[in-house]
Amino acid sequence: MAEVAMIVRGGRVVDQRGERTADVAVTAEGDIVEVGADLDAAGTGARVLDATGCVVAPGFVDVHVHFREPGQEDAETIESGARCAARGGYTAVVTMPNTQPAIDSAAVARQVLETGRGTVCDVHTSAAVTIGRQGGALSPMAELAELGVRLFTDDGAGVQDERLMRRAMEYGRALDVTLAQHCEIESLASGGHMHEGEWSSQLGIPGIPAEAEELMVSRDIALARLTGARIHFQHLSTAGSVELVRAAKAAGLPVTAEVTTHHLALTDACCAGYDPVFKVNPPLRTEADIAALKAAVADGTIDAIATDHAPHTQHAKEQPFDHAPPGMLGLETALAVARCELDVDLATLVGLLSWRPAAIAGIADRHGGPVEAGRPANLVVFDPDVAWTVDPADTASRSRNNPYAGRQVRGRVRHTVLEGEPVVIDGEVQR
Amino acid sequence: MNHLLSIADLGADGIDELLRLTDSFVEVSSRPIPKVPALRGKTVVSLFFEDSTRTRLSFETAAKRLSADTMNFSVSTSSVKKGESLRDTVETVEAMGVDAVVVRHSSAGVPLQISRWASSSIINAGDGWHEHPTQALLDCYTIRQHLGGVEGRRIAIVGDVKHSRVARSDVLAFTALGAEVTLVAPPTLLPPRVDAWPVEVSHDLDDVLPKVDVVYLLRMQRERMTEALVPSLREYTARYGLTLARSRLLAPDAIVMHPGPMNRGVEIAAEVADLPHAHIVDQVRNGVAVRMAVLFLLLGSGTQGVIDG
After folding, report:
1. Is the ipTM here above 0.90?
2. Minimal-distance CA residue of chain A relative to B80
């Protein structure tokens, strides 16, 4: 047996196999070597990571983050974004391609992946479906897939042209990749800055109707039927969208869907103070939408919780509401917000944060568990019930656009273990 | 009260108080020398990010009649292009030592955002589609002047409600004071969830006109044509314009109002604008007195005596 370098001691292991109280022994090579009660660390020189009262689970996986590099390093870098992820219990993330330049070529993708390699998180990247995310010509999908890209999306915008989307889905089938869509019909949504409804009507802010999202969800379900290709729906925000996905799944179509923590926790009423911190795309919707999203999480229609972690500088967010860029931070608060908003058991919650997104991202070989001998030690240790107050200044991000300032939440990450290395201990990033 | 950002902040009592205060300033304005020393030593800055002649002139006149010093901070499009942030602009203006900032911006919510960074009083002089509170106050005052009060009056607001800050403030003010408001417009020019507003909605001006005490016409902007909101100005005028023939449907003592600037021949026929029951010029005149009342209320605490002097 390989030498034990670390024992995660005294926690409750929660993974797809169930729940049990067990210690987890990890080798210097970063693999789990033994999982069992009261493992003996004496005489081995193994480090002990205290997990008393905590859940030990496969590390979280976020299929939707914006790390702003290259191009907007004043808002976030791959390095600072990875630190946020690690503090949030994530051992792997998938960055979005709306950088400057866009991640639409092997050169940019390689740069992102190489920069990510030295960080405290396993950084994967998606790539743009179309060159420059312009919706015109397909990106070199096969070349990008060879670098390990598994998700293709023009996130920030949806692919508007039906024919082009069909081709991308067909072409992608040969590459074993998944098309991911930011669903929004631009001709209905453009010029809008928040959910179109009672609040937008009162505030005098141009709105984005729910139907702008739902029409594209509906269209892409039809294209999945036509092409047989997988489609992943990003950050679904409306009751109509999850109803469409529920029906598509019932029909056996290869569709998956994510919901963000902010779409579960915040409504368009948050925009009443015209604070652009609450401007996000898709926009914050209504209580009825939140109820539908939660029901869709509960019945399995929603596969994954994502953060859409979208850093923006202070000055960008101090512009008028209709000028400010959309997006909010999420990696460091996701567990707590999900814990507060979702009435699901811990195994279901961990599944939404870990192994189900890992499968969507195509990285289930290394992330998402189960916690058993022979698997890579990508783990999170979190206290499921500790109460705390969100402070935007307490962050590893370069940005502060945190919509939960002052909010009382519960559930917090204590340690994150990446390939056997405790990169976060008691909330502090170790390097 | 530190700021005037929205009619909603005032409530019925606040509006009433301002209308009563306006009475004294209407009297001041009628004097041979229409000036009182109420705000001597105070500085009022106009910070207009969007072109406006009428509102700026009205606020400046009001400030000068109260003996305040006035300054103009012209924010041209070029200075926006230079990249100065909203916050930096406001902090620059405040550093000069001002007591009130009168803000006009094409984006909804900017006066509220500015009020979080400012130590002076912020007055909303129009923000995007959101609100134009002093316009609503002068409208209430004008209705009260000609009809004795706002409560129980039936008021039709006609035209582009969706894009109108005047309409949003007027609906809040009129309904707060107990008027019955009917919005008359094609559905494309109404807010998407107007059903949640405390108003009636009609698409038939001919049906509404005989039933109202006030018909309030909104300016129809030409760029709405390019957004496919109405097919043509001609068709808009045919269905929603207050033509001379249509004006005869009004009750004899009903009044016609418009926030200006008018598009004669579009939302209002040229002849109608000049009829004796059109009180558009009164609105402008009352605007100065209302803005004097607002400035006085925000900046003139403890100087009540000087108005009588």
Report:
1. yes
2. A319
